[in-house]
Specification:
The chain is an alpha+beta fold. It has one domain: Deoxyribonuclease I, Chain A. The protein has 6 helices and 14 strands.
């Protein structure tokens, strides 16, 4: 195991955000198309009846059912308390679960409209099917801007004939369009643009196939979106970005017709996408019964 992977795994252990998972970096190279998804699981807590989306055993069983129906090989997950919480949805016998090494935030605070409930840690991570060879790269902690209450990015490589770098992000909420100087959330989000664009540019300079996926908390598919224009400036070569959803409308929630959960690919990764494979998973139950306030989205890659 490389020193880089060892350090990243030790960070997980030290932060108590995850326990060591042995990446299959030296295992076989993937030789088939794979399905990659992103899913904000909405305040997924480790214990029953805790956090801002209290759940019962039946609720966790329902989430497991949807995870099985999604049938993705790699799932970027957001708003998850820790590895143990993720493994209540993604069976560790079937998936490797790895979480960012961000230390547990002391933010806490009451949950809106839920007396006696407090906010739990919101971490990002991946659930990776056991048959998929992968390696862990260093977390992108700069996305937190030095603020312990902001989320890090987690970075893995899927080892196909063409390796695919995947960065899972959960960016600052509250600035889903525009750039109002009077909105305290917009300066934070646009400050996160700097480390995000650096990661993208570094991958392009290295000639890597890459994708950024997760909860962007931003309607970047709008043609005039300033945030997306700034990171998709075509410089350096290979950094041209493509939004997997294109201009398709979101259908998960009746009042929100534009995606904020995105899979965005660089030039090389865009060439690996199976045409027409983008999909939004639907729970097929009334909206008030959705197990999360986000629906997963996915795309297939030929690696």
């Amino acid at each position: 195991m490389s020193l880089k992977i060892t350090i990243a795994l030790l960070a997980c252990t030290t932060a108590m955000a995850c326990s060591p998972v042995t990446p299959t970096a030296s295992g076989p190279v993937l030789d088939r198309p794979i399905k990659i998804a992103t899913w904000n699981v909405e305040h997924l807590a480790e214990q029953n009846d805790t956090g801002c989306r209290p759940r019962t055993d039946a609720d966790y069983a329902e989430l497991r059912r949807h995870a099985a129906a999604l049938d993705a090989d790699v799932i970027a997950i957001q708003e998850v308390e820790n590895q143990a919480a993720a493994e209540r949805v993604f069976d560790p016998a079937l998936y490797d679960v790895v979480m960012s090494g961000r230390p547990v935030s002391a933010r806490g605070g009451a949950c809106r409209g839920l007396a006696g409930k407090s906010i739990r840690q919101q971490a990002v991570g991946f659930a990776i099917r056991k048959s998929v060879p992968w390696a862990l790269n260093a977390d992108v902690s700069d996305l937190a801007l030095g603020n312990p209450d902001l989320r890090w990015g987690i970075d893995i490589t899927v080892n196909g004939a063409t390796p695919l770098r995947l960065l899972n992000v959960h960016l600052k909420s509250g600035c889903n369009s525009g750039r109002a100087a009077t909105d305290p959330d917009c300066p934070v989000l646009f400050n996160q643009l700097v480390p995000l664009e650096k990661w993208i540019d570094d991958r392009a300079v290295a000639g890597e196939a890459f994708a950024v996926l997760g909860d962007w908390n931003r309607r970047i598919s709008a043609s005039s979106d300033q945030f997306y224009r700034e990171i998709n400036d075509g410089n350096p070569a290979g950094s041209n970005l493509t939004i997997a959803a294109g201009t398709a409308p979101a259908t998960c929630k009746a009042r929100y017709r534009e995606f904020i959960d995105h899979i965005v690919t660089g030039t090389k990764a865009s060439a690996l996408v199976v045409p027409g494979s983008f999909a939004e998973y639907t729970y097929r139950v009334p909206e008030e019964q959705h197990p999360s306030d986000h629906c997963p989205v996915s795309v297939e890659f030929k690696l």
